[in-house]
Write a structure and sequence with these properties.
The complex is a heterodimer of chains A (about 325) and B (about 300). Chain A is mostly helical and about 325 residues long. Chain A is built from 15 helices and no strands. The chains are: A mainly alpha (about 325), B mainly alpha (about 300).
Chain lengths: ~325, ~300
Amino acid sequence: MTSPVATVPGRSAADPSGTPGPVPRLRTPRHRHSADKPRRSVLLTALTSLVLLYSLVPLVWLAISATKTQEGLSRSAGLWFDGDFALWDNIAETFTYDDGVFTRWLLNTLLYVGLGAGGATFLAVLGGYALAKFDFPGRRAVFAVVIGAVAVPGTALAVPTFLMFSEMGLTNTPWAVIVPSLISPFGLYLMWVFATEAIPTELMEAARIDGAGEVRTFFRVALPLLAPGIVTVLLFTMVATWNNYFLPLVMLKDPDWYPLTLGLNSWNQQAATAGGEPVFNLVVTGSLLTILPLIAAFLLLQRYWQSGLAAGSVKE
Amino acid sequence: MTTLQPPAAAEPRPAPPPVRRDRRSWTGWGFLGPFVAVFALVFLAPIAYSVYLSLFRDQLIGGTTFVGLDNYAEALKDEQFWASLGRVSLFLAVQVPIMLGIALLVALALDSGRLYGRDFFRISVFLPYAVPAVVATLMWGFMYGTRFGLVGDINSALGVSLPDPLSPDLVLASIGNIVTWEFVGYNMLIFYSALRVVPHSLYEAAQIDGAGQIRVITAIKLPAIRGALVIATVFSIIGSFQLFNEPSILQPLARNAITTDYTPNYYTYALSFNGQQHNYSATVAIVMGLITMVIAYVVQLRGMRKGV
C-alpha cells in the first residue's frame, strides 16, 4: 500500500518514506548539529510531562476504578487499587445487568457507526473525487455552501431536524441517528485534497481510452489510490458517530435504541431517580469498555490519521 | 465562511502540471449528487424549516399564527438568552486561550526535537480525543467529588478542604477543565502537523544569522503555522458557543449550579423539549447561529490579515 504521507500536499517531496517525524532528521545524516539534531533536554521533557500526566491520569483513574466494587469505589483512594479486584465481575455484570441491555447498546452503536460512518465516508469519497477531478456547473457553489455549513451550530439544527423527522415518522428509529451522520463536511474536504494529489488525471484518461466507463474508472483506478485517505476519513467519522450524544438524545426515546453514550448516562442518572439502584461500578466499567475500541483503533492506525490531520492543517 | 481553500490554491509544489479536465460536463454530479442530496436533507432543509418556524407562534388561543419578526424581538430582549451567551463568552475568553496555549507549547516542544520519547508524548496527549464527551464528563464528575472523588482524596490526604468544583462559583471552570482535557491533544496535533511542514532551510538560515530558539519560534514557526492557529481558534469558538454535552451531563451532580438555561444550546434544547416552545426555540437557535458565524468570520479575517 502506498504510504499515506506521500500523497499529502506539501509532504510528498520531503517525506517519501512515510515515517513519522521531521524528515531531514531521519532521512539525511547530515551533521549540521544544532539545527537538525538538537540536544535532548531533561527540563523540557519534565515540563511537557505535566501535560502528559494531565492527559493520562484520568484514564488511569478510569482503568483502576473499573477494578472496584460499588463499595470499593467510595471506600478506597481513587488512584490506587481497592482490596477486592473486581474487574472481571464488573465486566460480567456490565454485560448481564438489566437483561444484557449493555450488549444491545453496543450493537446499536456498531450499527450507527457502521452505517453512519461507513456511509459518510462513502459519500465523502464520491464527492471529493467529483470536486477534485471533474469540472461541472455549480462546483464552486457547492463547496462554498458545504464549508459555510460547518459554522452552523450542529445543535441549532437538532430541533428543526427532530421536528422534520418526527413528521416523517423517523424519530425513535435508527434512521434518525444514521441519516444525519451521513454528512461529514470535513471528510469531503479531506477527500478533495487527497483525490487532487493522489489520482493522476492521465491515468483516468488512459482508462477511458481503454474503454472503461466512469463507474469502472472510479472503482478500478481511483479507489485504490485513495485508500489511505479513506482510512483517515473513516477513522474520524467513526469517532464522531461512536461519541455522538446530542443527536441520539434528541431523536431517541426508547432505551432499546440507545447507543452506548446515552445508555451510560442513563445508568449514571439512575441513582438519582426515586427507587433507582446506583450502579456506579457498572458506569465506570462500561465507560472503560466504551473507549477501548477507539483507543485501540487510534493506536493501530496512527500513521493514517496523522497524515490526514497534516493534510488538513497545511492549508493557509 | 471559508476557512479552507481549494487545494489548488495552496499547492506548495512549484508549477503543478495543469489539470486537464474534461470539458465542462455534468458527469461530476453523478459522483457528488448523493452527498448533495443528503446534505440538503439534513442541513439545508432544517435551516429553512427553522427560519419558517421562527416566523410563527403557537398560542393557546388562536393556534399557530404568523408573527413576522416578533420572536426575534423577544429573543433580543430575553435576559435568559443574554445571560447564557455571556456565560459561554466568558468561557470562550478564558478556556480557549488556555487550551490553545497549552496545545501550542506542547507542539513546539515536540517539534523542537529536544524531548525524550517524542512519539509517546504525541500519542498520549492525543488519546483523550478518542474519549466520548459523555465518558469524559462522567469520569471528571466522579473525580470532582469532594467526598469520594480525587478531590476528596486530596482533602483527606492533606487535611485540607478544597472548595467544591461543582459549586456555582467553580462549575464553569470545572467544565472548562473537562473541555480542555478533551481537546488539548487534538489542537496540539494540528499545530504539530503544521510545524512539521515548515521547510528546514528556514531554520538553517536563521541559525546562520545567529537567531536563538525563541527568535526562531516567534519569527519563523509561529508565522508559518498562522493558518493552523486561525483554524483552531475558529473551531474552538464554534465549539464554545455550542457548549451543551458537558453541562447537561454534569447537571444532575450540580443541580444548583447548572440551570437549564446555562448555555444557549442548553436553553434552546430545554425550550423545545421541556417547554414545547418550538417556534421560539428555533428563533434562539438562529440568532445564536448568526452570532457564531459572524464572530467566526471576523476572527478568521483578522487572523489571516494580521501578524500573530
